[in-house]
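Quick one: sequence plus S-adenosylmethionine SMILES, need structure tokens.
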Amino acid sequence: MALPPLTPLDPNAHATFGFPLNWGIQDPEKFYKLIQEMLPLLAPGYYLGDNLLTWQRNLSLFHDKPFVQAWETNIQNNADRVIAWRRFVLACAGYHCVQLDGDFVECGAFAGSGMKTVMDYLGGKAFPKRFYGYDTFDYHPVAEHAQAGQDETLYPRVVKRFEGYDQVTLVKGLIPESFKTACPDKIAYLHIDLNSATYEVACLEHLFDKVVPSGLIVLDDYEWSYPYQDQKIAEDKWFEARKYRVMPLPTGQGLVIKR
Ligand SMILES: C[S@@+](CC[C@H](N)C(=O)[O-])C[C@H]1O[C@@H](n2cnc3c(N)ncnc32)[C@H](O)[C@@H]1O
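Reply:
Sure thing.
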């Protein structure tokens, strides 16, 4: 298969990224005013957004041309834009997993932007694996987490979005019952993004043993504190019992490498 070519880093081309979407800020007007004062004090290479502020970084994601193309063309809302670094973690995980035995799975597909970014990074319509996307689509089963545009029009929109992507299997229904509808035997890439400790642990119960050795599991909200901390607490307990430790990433995601 054709993997996306590496764009060599140009040490003179500094990337920066700032998008004013962050959560948990009490006085946004004051915050962004102070940020504007602070940014000129920083060495080049800052990323600000998605509750991430870092500087003097290579920002490899913005130097990776196939990634930038895949990310930008799949932006449907401000959240898709600001979580660029989270998307790059998925793209890099996909790069590794596409070379393993097994399929790709996303639990919590919503509009399909995460799935499609990874597929477009790795060949688009020529993506060489089956990619299962699970979601209720019509509604969010976790109270107070409904996504904008999540109603009965979502599923047909996602089906249309993946027209020509014959490798995609969208499984509509409540996890974990929906695993009975369709579920791969072997999984190389597992992205879990349900905003719920109970449902995410249910995914692990059903899918973890199917993940092949050296397959990757990305837990989207693992390292976020309020209101997601119960996910980390439940998932740590689950993994500890199996002698795994989740790597917390600065993006707020958690990463597990299957043995
Ligand atoms: C944050 S959104 C996912 C965003 C998506 N991963 C992306 O990259 O754009 C969470 C999704 O999980 C779905 N969800 C939560 N619990 C679920 C369950 N038990 N069964 C099916 N879908 C569920 C919701 O309907 C919602 O669409």
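Residues 8 and 75 are 25 Å apart (CA to CA). The chain has a mean pLDDT of 96.
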